[in-house]
Write a structure and sequence with these properties.
single chain; alpha+beta; Thrombin, subunit H; Pdz3 Domain; 3 domains; six-stranded antiparallel barrel; 26 strands; elongated
């Protein structure tokens, strides 16, 4: 065993010695300084080409480098300028949308011109550019910078505040332009990229996936946002959201201020739907029925004893509106429009909004289980009010405590109606406080709301409210009909009584 170990050790020593000798000879024969670069051999060139020129991507892979190279010439930087007094309006709108205000609010007290930047993209060779309404609203001068460095003046063709879409135009074409895709074919998890000018860093490209489709942010009746984790920052507004085929599927519009990795884009199909009116009218006219709606969910169906689970429930009817003129009332359930079934209230509102004012629609609705059909002539939808009024209450007033549904209530009378800015003639109970995590909180009842009815029974006093609620069994669902001052509308909320 010792002999074998000695032989093995000697053999290894010999091999190591030979190798070290060869290494020393190589080092002694090498030049003292690096040799000048020479033409590479064929084998070396092949190796270099493999490093510099990436191999083709596997089938099904996405190469956003090629997409960005093709799209960048169609993406523009928009410089908006306005005098101080006009810029103030934009600050409020930007704050409402949680988007980048193009005008610096830090200079609010200065009368010098305000300047801000946004993004847009060309949609035809003639110079038509899509962007966001909030990028150009109130601007007295618009300047567009192209990818090739040219700077051109732009004019507003049309704008739609309700969907935050604007169309502007430059001259001097033909221009490279984007290809518009079909946003209805997007799927959650699909790769997309955004191009824009965040913080004035021009033509920044970010990549992510579609996180959600149909997100509601500002106007639930019209919003249908694409949510993505592709980075969208200040200055990105108005830029394109692009799919893996190089087609524009959205207009980047908003970002979350609280959480990173959450951005929102307007579906390009929504922009397609308003383009014609923006070109011809400079604005968008929408049909209007004048009713507030909600979906029929299982709790609502149980509390109101509805025979069907589909349709849109009427919560409020605006006086003098088309809906009021044909006799629609709260608790009616609209089940079809022109023979097409109503699946959700959002779809119904969009259907009505897409029709021109003055057109007729035939509605079928249920009232107390009986079907009725009526033809209604639509009016023009008014622009949504931005300023909201919120009712307030004080703890020194009469209250119920938090025993009934987790609500503290105040009886409305002549002495406090004016104090709380309650509409003239309205009677009911003002919600002073909602106990956190109570059944009322779970049902979506907010402080400042005015309860008008419970299970279709008017409630004018705290005693009457207790009587109706007390008649419910544990686990029953109550339909609470209320007025929401912050939205200036009536609504129906469902509250499930606690199980004992």
């Amino acid at each position: 065993m010792t002999r074998l170990f000695v032989i093995t050790t000697a053999t290894l020593s010999l091999v190591i010695g030979v190798l070290m000798g060869l290494l020393l000879n190589v080092q002694r024969g090498a030049p003292a300084s690096p040799a000048p670069l020479a033409a590479a051999s064929d084998s070396d060139a092949t190796a270099i080409r493999e490093v510099v020129d990436p191999r083709p991507l596997p089938p099904g892979s996405v190469n956003f480098a090629d997409i960005a190279a093709r799209m960048n010439p169609a993406v523009v930087n928009i410089d908006a300028t306005a005098r101080a007094r006009r810029a103030r309006r934009l600050i409020e709108d930007g704050a409402r949308r949680g988007t980048d205000d193009p005008f610096d609010p830090g200079r609010r007290g200065v009368d010098a011109p305000r300047r801000g930047t946004g993004t847009g993209f060309l949609i035809d060779a003639d110079g038509s550019i899509l962007t966001n309404h909030h990028v150009i609203e109130g601007a007295e001068r618009l300047t567009v910078k192209l990818a090739d460095g040219r700077t051109l003046r732009a004019e507003v063709v049309g704008s739609d505040p309700d969907t935050d879409i604007a169309l502007i135009k430059i001259s001097g074409g033909p221009f490279a332009h984007a290809v518009l895709g079909d946003s209805s074919k997007l799927r959650v998890g699909e790769w997309v990229c955004a191009i824009g000018n965040p913080l004035a860093y021009e033509h920044t490209v970010t990549v992510g996936v579609v996180s959600f489709i149909g997100r509601k942010l500002f106007d639930p009746s019209l919003d249908n946002y694409i949510q993505t984790d592709a980075a969208i920052s200040f200055g990105n507004s108005g830029g394109p959201l692009i799919n893996a085929r190089g087609q524009v599927v959205g207009i980047n519009s908003a970002m979350s201020r609280q959480v990173s990795g959450i951005g929102f884009a307007i579906p390009i199909n929504q922009a397609r739907a308003v383009l014609k009116q923006l070109r011809t009218l400079g604005r968008v006219e929408r049909g209007y029925l004048g009713v507030t709606l909600r979906d029929v969910d299982p709790d609502l169906r149980q509390s109101l004893k509805l025979s069907r689970a589909d349709g849109a429930l009427v919560q409020d009817v605006t006086p003098g509106s088309p809906g009021a003129r044909v006799g629609l009332r709260p608790y009616d359930v609209i089940v079809s429009v022109d023979g097409r079934p109503v699946r959700t209230h959002d779809r119904l509102i969009r259907d009505i909004a897409e029709r021109p004012p003055g057109s007729a629609a035939r509605l079928e609705y249920l009232r107390d289980g009986r079907a009725t059909s009526v033809s209604v002539k639509l009016a023009e939808r008014p622009r949504q009010a931005v300023d909201r009024v919120t009712a307030t209450a004080e703890r020194s007033m009469q209250r119920t405590g938090s025993g009934e549904l987790g609500l503290s209530l105040i009886e409305i009378d002549d002495s406090n109606a004016h104090r709380f800015d309650i509409p003239s003639g309205m009677t009911g109970l003002l919600v002073q406080r909602v106990e956190p995590l109570s059944v009322a909180d779970d049902g979506g009842i907010d402080r400042g709301s005015i309860i008008l009815e419970v299970n279709r029974q008017p409630v004018h006093s705290i005693a009457g409210f207790r009587r109706v609620v007390g008649a419910a069994r544990p686990g029953d669902v109550l339909a609470v009909y209320l007025y929401e001052p912050d939205l200036d509308q009536r609504a129906i909320r469902t509250v499930r009584t606690e199980q004992r």
